[in-house]
Amino acid sequence: MALPVLSSSGVKFRRVLAHFPQELSLAFAYGSGVFRQEGASAGHSENNMLDFVFAVDDSVTWHMMNLLKNKSHYSFLKVFGPKQISNIQSYGAGIYYNTLVPCNGRMIKYGVISTDTLIDDLLHWKTLYVAGRLQKPVKILTQNENGKLQAALVSNLKSAVTAAFLMLPESFSEEDLYMQIAGLSYSGDFRMIIGEDRSKVQNIVKPNVPYFQKLYSNILQDCPQVVYKHHLGRLEIDKSPEGQFTQLMALPRSLQQKITSLVDPPGKNRDVEEILLQVAHDPDCGLVVHQGASPVMSSAADWTAWSPRWPWST
User: Fold this and answer.
1) Are residues 81 and 159 in the same domain?
2) Which of 24, 206, 295, 311 is least buried, going by the fewest C-beta atoms within 10 A?
3) One digit per residue, pLDDT tens: the chain, 314 residues?
4) Does the residue 83 lie in any domain?
């Protein structure tokens, strides 16, 4: 099952993609340059930077080909060659960004991540950096037939729904669900405290509810633990300890580990299942999951993904 393509790629995105080596397992565009956000005018969106992520099977080979085509995109690190760039890519969130790149009359930035690193993040939420972006609407530009990647993309969406269920009350609206999902990758993110609009999650969700529905409606309809009243835009979930335990056991490994480290005192060394059963019976189960879901973005991840382009780049 492939991740749903939310709409046609559009000429402007295909033209951008044509500038790069085509050996891509997945390429998508995301952010305010692609999807309208609340309070942003259409004209403003057209001027926003276009953001892309490219997943590649062989990072060294891809950077080698890209250096031949687009050497000016890279900072001074280009002098060290594709192997060193690939090594730097492996730090932090496992993604290497070239930023402030002029392309077809627009400013773009693009991140390169290995397919294996992406699959690991999608399945286990090791950093929730790219996995978090793929829990929100994106514009899929190309996706190959890698079965492991396709399964991981769907697993990431199911995990987002499960985590959100644990943090929501017994009855809630679809918009509540999508707000919770969209907020997963922002919890604990210093950018939501310093320098960015704290209402960002709401601004993302409200104008894009139909896109969220396209991503998640099949998952919600097939989920045995939810009553999905699509015509009313309402959902009801099983909040019994048994239901919550089932959901906790379905969470990604990294989130389970974070939850257990919050609950289990040092030295007890209880197994994960025993601790999650205790959490399932806790009236504050949702709060514990929320605390565990707050991604701890390492300084290397922040630097790799968000630093401005080196001022002496050419």
Assistant:
1) no
2) 311
3) 445 444 444 788 889 999 999 999 999 999 888 887 766 554 445 667 899 999 999 999 999 999 999 999 999 989 999 999 999 999 888 999 999 999 988 999 999 999 999 999 999 998 889 999 999 999 999 999 999 999 999 999 999 999 999 999 999 999 999 999 999 877 544 444 444 555 888 888 999 999 999 999 999 999 998 999 888 889 999 999 999 999 999 999 999 999 998 988 766 778 899 999 999 999 999 999 998 887 544 333 444 443 334 333 33
4) yes
Range of the domain at 110: 8-146
250 and 122 in a single domain? The answer is no
DSSP structural state of residue 72 = G
Query: Is the overall model pTM greater than 0.90, yes or no?
Result: no
**What are the residues facing 101 on neighbouring strands?**
108
Within a domain: residue 63? yes
Residue 311 domain-assigned (yes or no): no
Give burial (CB, 10 Å; 0-12/13-18/19+) of 115. buried
d(CA 180, CA 163) in angstroms, rounded, equals: 9
Q: Which of 82, 31, 27, 83 is nearest to 55 (CA)?
A: 27
Please, are residues 282 and 288 in contact by the beta-carbon 8 Å criterion? yes
